[in-house]
Amino acid sequence: MKRRGFLVAALFILINLLLFECGDRDITKEIYISYEIVDSDGDGIEDNMDNCPTMANPEQANMDGDDLGDACDDDADGDGYLGNINDCNDLGALIQPGIPELCDDRDNDCDPYTAVDDGCDDDNDGWCDDSMITIGKPSICLNGGGDCNDDDPFIYPGVFEYCFDSSDTDCDGDDTDAEPDCYKFLIPDTGISDCYDNNGLINCPSSGEAFNGQDAQYLINPMNFTDNIDGTVTDNVTGLMWQQQDDDIERTWTDAINYCDNLTLAGYNDWRLPDEYQLQSIVDYGTYNPAINTNCFPNTNPTFYWSSSVYAQSSLFAWGVYFNSGVVDCYHFRTDLCFVRCVRGNFRKQYFIDNGDGTVTDIITGLIWQEEGKNSCTWQGALAYCKSLTLAGYNDWRLPNIKELRSIVDNTEYDPAINRTYFPNTSYFNYWSASTNPGHPNYAWIVHFEYGPVFVNGKTNNSHVRCVRLQPNWEWVFPSPVIPVPPDPGDTPIYYNGEEIPEL
Fold first, then answer.
1. Contact predicate 61/75, CB 8 Å
2. Of 419, 418, 443, residue with least CA distance to 433
3. What is the spatial distance between Cα 283 and Cα 305, in angstroms, rounded to a whole number?
4. ω into 97 cis (within 30 of 0)
5. pTM for this entry
6. What is the average pLDDT across 28-56?
7. Contact by Cβ (8 Å): 188, 403
């Protein structure tokens, strides 16, 4: 656009070239100057002031600070790569071919064969690999960076430290085996305090007598609860905090998940649906209808309560616990209506070590297991077998109680439902526990290792046997039930090659 002529409104220059008196006259000379204004791209900025006169750019953006505006600059970010030719994004110097990929929701290295933020969270635990630069909390790892082992989803900042696993589980850089707060998940006692033979109550037998070595003769981690007087109960053995009373409403499995996820109780909003291991931990197998401490958990319905665990063989079903007796099973469709009790606190995990001597240690529970057990025998025979067993230099073996036996079930497996790396040749039939069903004392509790349920079996029938012992000096202090999260770095700048990287 060109505008020519004498500019009266836009430009009037009055120059007094000469002011002098000639007699009684003042002489003033007025000179009008005209010039040409050129705005080739019509963006309101004259060409002689425009950093890109051939393309409209009223903002005059100039990212790299050279004399050429971004609209005309083939390398607007000044990274040495021409936009739309080699540079997949010419709006930032930290996006160019060959640069290391950052974790920032951008394709920094311009590699068409890899995803945005490739390699940032390989274990999908929501934490970015600490070997990569993380900017803020990108969508691929919403918790931020700092994952010291991006191949293991159970290792990330703030998780509980596991004992004796030779790994820095919480990514704090400490020697894990020396940390005083390393995490163990103690298995609460069953609550059974009476001894039984095949038919009913007996005086607890001495060593060498028939039926010696049953559940009531070992009080390990006795159940201990604290009523917090705010609608919650703390399990002083596991450290879990429980909803004291359910709301007496039956829900589908999906609705149960959502109910706990959205529950706010006693000032906490991190409630969740427990898995079946955690739910079984509050079962009192010494009583029934309901099989729970009713002083701490009043008005518990003597029926099925949902867990968060889905049946491995068919996702149509989910696990749960029958609180009339303590049966653990997955016969309910996820669309069935069942009761719900929510929990908050630490997560349970299996962590086995093959000791190379026919035994396997679960470093989370402190239990040492016989790798391969005995084939079928009666309940009385199973008790006697474990009491007489000498293995790996130890002679303090016993038949496990029902909570201990269920702890080695792997609910992600079936046929058999166990970690076959550590327990090869496990039968997918019944295995005895040392626990009698007090409502039917001619039955003892068993785990069926085809898929992992807890049932009962007549004591004169045959089942398989796997013995256990407790690792000596197994001391433990449970951690806070709130999983800590590292503080947000806030406005702390992040640099790469001397350049500050802005948070998105």
1. no
2. 443
3. 12
4. no
5. 0.64
6. 68
7. yes
